Amino acid sequence: MRGKTHCAAGILAGIQLSIIFSMPVSIINIIASAAFSILPDLDKSNSIISGFIFRKKTSEHIYKLLIYTLNAAIFFMLIKMNADFLVSGIISFFIIIIVEKKVSHYHVRKYLVSFSLLLIALLLIIITNNIFFMFPFVVFAVFPWLKHRNFSHSIIMIFLVYIMMKPIEMISSLDKISVISAFSYGFHILCDMFTRQGVALFYPFSSKKISLGYIKVGGKFSNIIEKILVLLLFIWTFISVAEILGIHII
């Protein structure tokens, strides 16, 4: 499932969960639903959540800057070693070609995303003077280096989200944010289970990926199914809200 569908479905499912179990439907909980419904894909460099944390174009510019800087450094180092100007240029050119084959833009982006999350964690400790606020950011800072749909898409991670968010809920009085966050995270995993690739639900005990469907992410059929899912959730949520307001649609 695409990131934007995960986000929309996660928000609607989170609102519906709040209505069913009489939990508060606040802006904070809606934001939490949106965030945690796309966070599992942080283990994918070109995901919507990676782009939100660190924009692709920005990381591409930084990558090019690093390549050019390295090229210039190698060239001037060879010149300093009394190498011929033309030879230095050729050698530095071929070294950069090798580096670009081994280190892609996505490698640099992983470092940038991880660094950004760790920086946020550090700032939160300084601002709040409480270590509980940093734990989610430290854990998710590791995600860019994980294999896609393994630990990030496991049952253990759903429980870990709840455990990390519960102290924050108690300290900040953000009612039921731990439940909303864990549910939205789990809903993402449930949706991905219906794709052809599946998820390693019981990782690290088993790396076998479980799939309940044959939907190919990005395909025409998959896109139609995603739109139908979001539409059905929207209709269900709309009817539920209307019932609460005393408006009987059905």
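the 2nd protein, sequnce then structure:
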Amino acid sequence: MKSTRVRVILAVAAAGVALTACSPNQAGAAAVVSGERISSDELDRNVREYEGALTKAGVNPAQLQFPGSVTQVVLYQLVTTKKYAKVAANKGVTATEGEVEQLIARQGGMQKLEQQLLQLAVAPSQMREFLRAQVMFNKLIVGYGGGSDEAAFNRGKEQADKDAAAVKVDWNPRYGQLNTAPSEKEPGLFVAGDRFSTQVKAPAAPAPPPQQ
């Protein structure tokens, strides 16, 4: 079996992703990913669950130096999970429960992985889907790269990232507008102007990605 890596990404999406407001028939959506809604209620549930998990772990969100508010970053990860899964599925790439379990085992078990995923704003109930999407996206990268070395991985990732950037995402302006041109003045995931737009420092380096 080829040795591959799952790269967990928390960064501004590449230019080309749609940045429009939700249309009237998508009322109540925090975002719509290629026609699939993430409702505001779903987002609120994830935020509450995530904040509860941080409290239980004794972690202050400010320590994590997120590139935006907790609500924004949780929403971004929900969108990213759906984008990766859709891109891979459209190319016929799937991930079995066994492959997800193998990834978890290689990382020392779910308890260890949970600590990493909390640092990436993934609510506990979403962790398996997040990992499944990462496995699928990583398999797509390997398929595009045509090999298992670093050059092949980078080659495949470039094409997979282009596919992900082409996925249409409608963001509800209530939660902000994605920042596709980060700068020293506007380093966050979302540009200022919305009610959740308090910006913090540029993102610290993400936790070491799960290795596969």
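Residues 1-25, 194-212 have pLDDT under 50 and may be disordered. The two ends are 11 Å apart (CA to CA).
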